[in-house]
Amino acid sequence: MKKNYLLTFIALLVMHLSIGQSDLYQDSPPDFIDADRFSVEAVSDSDPDQQKEIDGFKMYPNPVTNGLLTITSNRNLTKNIRIYNVLGKEVMRTTLTTTNTLNVSTLVPGVYLLKVTEANSQSIRKLVIK
């Protein structure tokens, strides 16, 4: 019996991060996939538990070349910052309260995921350090 999967949003949960979006059409999983090693979760846009995007969220410059990243939003409230490397390991955790500037000069050049939480809203972006 063939199973057809149509997922409009795939969230690969690594440290509770949404990694990406995709459509998946698959008759059966490939042989190299061990279903017990990871999970795939379909999330609807109307999911009441899904956090909304931070209103007016901006981060710049990206890529960062001088070690300083500016993070702003319309509400400009306290922001909890977490930065993860491509393996999902948290490499930085801090809080921005009175400033919008984050010093990322201790991070080695590469690609990271930036997770910003402000009140009940959350934004996740790719961050590039040069």
Automatic annotation (TrEMBL):
Secretion signal, residue range per the UniProt entry: 1-20
Annotated Secretion system C-terminal sorting domain residues: 59-129
Keywords assigned: Signal
Source domain of life: Bacteria
Protein name (Swiss-Prot/TrEMBL): T9SS type A sorting domain-containing protein
Organism: Leptobacterium flavescens
